[in-house]
Amino acid sequence: MQTAASNEELLDLLAFHVAKEQVQLRDAAAAPVAPSAARQAPYEFFTGAPGAPPTAPVAPVPAPEAGAEIKADAEPKGAEPKAGAEPKAAAQAQVESTTIRVDVKKVDQLINLVGELVITQAMLAQNSRGLDASAYQQLLAGLADLDRNTRDLQESVMSIRMIPMSIVFNRFPRMLRDLANKLGKKVELVTLGEATELDKGLVEKIIDPLTHLVRNSCDHGIELPADRLAMGKPEQGTITLSAAHQGGSIVIEVRDDGRGLARGKILRKARERGLEVSEQMADADVWQLIFAPGFSTADQVTDVSGRGVGMDVVKRNIAALNGSVEVDSAEGYGMKVSVRLPLTLAIMDGMSVGVGEEVYILPLSCVVESFQVDTDAVSTVAQGSQLVKVRDEYMPVIALEKIFQVPRFDLDKSSCIMVVVEDDGSRVALLVDELLGQHQVVVKNLESNYRKVPNVSGATILGDGTVALILDTGGLVRRARH
Q1: For 198-218, what is each residue's pLDDT tens digit?
Q2: At what angle do helices 104-127 and 137-160 cross, to 10 degrees?
Q3: 260 vs 253: CA distance, rounded Å
Q4: DSSP state of 196
Q5: Fewest 10 Å CB contacts: which of 63, 84, 250, 379?
Q6: What are the chain's domains?
Q7: Is the entire prediction scored with pTM above 0.90?
């Protein structure tokens, strides 16, 4: 049978009856067909068709020219990886088509614009409180929609800068494996809370401090396998990296089950360096000595030895992020370093409280409850400190009027409301005059525009244009603890 149709047209025609992979097209001039084969030609197109005469398998006729024969069912062995690579390439192309690269400065500019929108929305909301709901029904409904849309826009914009901690944790397995092999130790790395999200700017700045902590845990904390077996421990040590949200902060912990800190050795080294120490110091104060510049308890100084190597840099870098570092250790059982970083970015939910004529903002994520105080529930202890009993639990009382020396023009009015805030597992009760409400606030950096103020983490602009201070609940809790 002869035809002037092209190979592609024939394949499209035959595709209605049989898969294209089962079709073989040969050039009639290059491979003449025997008469017996010609009679079986109709059945060649329909392999296994009903009524087809049985035929012996015929070896394929090689084509003299490239492209003269198309054999989809006889591809070379190297074709399989190529076929498997096509879906991967398609998937990669699909991912690239759904993502774009944007300069961080443009994202920051967008966040600032949303912050200005939040301030404008707060101003409109405050000015509309005195309007008659029946006369201005449509206006108030529009303002309610503006409030909802502004909040949704703020959450969407803020999520752009948030990336999971797995981006940081994935850097450590290989580094730790190489270091353990170099030191002749067996170490396992365990990561927890990889899905915890942190601002991209903080993630980039926290990598170096965490690297110092992990390297020091492997070198100075984890013992050699023989030493661990002699102490009744498994020969493989464990270093745990974890991240979790606590209130308005993110806590990153580096734990190891090594030898821990030696209190006596640290005190001896501190005396040699001329530091003022005593045997009566609390453990927490002794552990803080390792953050002194150049302080190390290592017998031999190497590129990674001693917890003091780089620990002063760790504390300085974290303090620059308005964070804190705490150390907990048990000699012979291991130690834990907790890095606490604030989550306050550009916009957050806050509770405004009034003290005298001043307005202060509390991060809503740290507020537990508020209640009317009963004078009988407040007890005065040593040095004038006060405690309040809340459901069989005693909490320290902090009077914001005294902390910030708020002038009192109305002498008859006194603080009678307590707001319980929590930070790092500890709670304190703040004594205020009144609760003004909950709303979104735009965080302005007070340190870059003025200076660092104790117990204050930032400032915000209220709806009426006045400035209110955002309180550092972590600092207030630590103040009450000490």
Answers
A1: 888 788 888 888 998 999 889
A2: 160
A3: 15
A4: -
A5: 84
A6: 7-96 (no CATH), 104-161 (1.10.287), 163-342 (3.30.565.10), 347-481 (2.40.50.180)
A7: no
